[in-house]
Amino acid sequence: MSDKFDVIVIGAGPAGYVAAIRAAQLGLKTACVDAFAGKDGKQALGGTCLNVGCIPSKALLDSSRQYWNIAHNFPVHGISVEGAKVDMAAFIGRKDKIVKQFTGGIGQLFKANKVTPFFGTGKLLKGNQVEITAADGSKQTISATNVILASGSVPIELPFAKFDGKHIVDNAGALDFTEVPKRLGVIGAGVIGLELGSVWKRMGAEVTILEALPDFLAVADADVAKIAKKEFEKQGLAIKLGAKLTKAEVRKNEVALTYEDKDGAHELVVDKLLVAVGRRAYTTGLLADDTGVKLDERGRIVVDEHCHTGVDGVWAIGDAVRGPMLAHKGSEEGVAVAEWIAGKAGHVNFDTIPWVIYTEPEIAWAGKTEKQLKDEGVPYKVGTFPFAAIGRAVAMNEAVGQVKMLAHAETDRILGVHMVGPGVSELIAECVVAMEFKGSSEDLARIVHAHPTLSEAVHEAALSVDKRAIHKGN
Predict the structure, then answer these.
(1) DSSP state letter for 387
(2) What does the pLDDT look like over 40-65, one tens digit per residue?
(3) Is 451 a catalytic residue?
(4) Could you tell me if 290 and 178 are in contact, meaning their C-beta atoms sit under 8 angstroms apart?
(5) Which of 157, 319, 397, 463 is the most buried (most CB within 10 A)?
(6) Over the range 23-41, which residues count as b (16 or more CB within 10 Å of their CB) and which as e?
(7) pTM given for the model
């Protein structure tokens, strides 16, 4: 063993690097092992989220939105632009620059907090030892009192549509197209499929999304999903539900798809195919056979409510364990575990974790859906308010969508809030705070909201719960 630490974190994604920093802040001697390499071949901290996920996708979403606005939003404001063109090298280059800025920033945070980074693949051995395999195959072993497993997740690959990095790609490949594909096929109408499908549609691609499930965004509130689907189709996204891909064959520079729906078998030919059918926990090679750490039927690391594996000093967090695969969920688990290790009171409330889809319009929610409340037999009341009646939204020419609030019929406690519209990725935070403090719709209804702002939609939805909204009929 070359060194002994208080804490070793395997994985430097949003769960792992945050856990490492918090542990170091608490005075624990901390190391973080990660094998992700950037385009320059050097260690790139931040995991999938910072390198090929959350951050680069938002960069492209914003760039593509600017381009889309020139033709579809600027004219409404009396602004006309002729001959707009896109420099794809600059388009992708901006994204890469942002990624490098943030991955480098984590490196600086590690230095500031005295976290020791190791570049290589980490494997947990018995006795809380970690074997690190470098890119050249060389190995070293370090040990710690506590090991936090934060190995993250990887895209699910379909056996009949394997990634080739050129014609059939995962999320990383779809962030690095050198030119706008004329025809883009997307398998899966989830977060990744909708966001990246939106990017390339705005840039001029003909985008067809095939979703195997019969319902659109079944995880979201049905009313929100209905509004979102209608708007996406207005933008030109072709969304086919109940469409199961059965074959994908690369022919020269095209991909021939065969899919089945209620009307039978169909063919679709595209230039690029993005497979975005979900992600799975990445635990390949993570555990030696004798560690005692268990995996469930989905390959996730089994943990208790405190993210402990049942093996003394071994914890697991983020996408590799139960719960939603969300960066902020993993980060909060990382903070909580570091605090538990240090003898403090860590905390993660899974009931108030916000979800966001960064499409146009944005979609966000926290808490229970109406369907969940019905299935659980919970009495509830509903308040809604459209952005079409919000002055700020109309002035922005982004008046599509609504805020929907669900409160307990007897106690008025907020049980869920669901939004689709402009800026809802930010608006949901107010509702999460209210829910975390066990607030009621009456609480939000009585709080003064600035005018004119988008947040007034939350205020009016809260008023609407008791049928006293001011700017719409009750």
Answers:
(1) G
(2) 999 999 999 999 999 999 999 999 99
(3) yes
(4) no
(5) 319
(6) bbbbebbbbbbbbbebeee
(7) 0.96
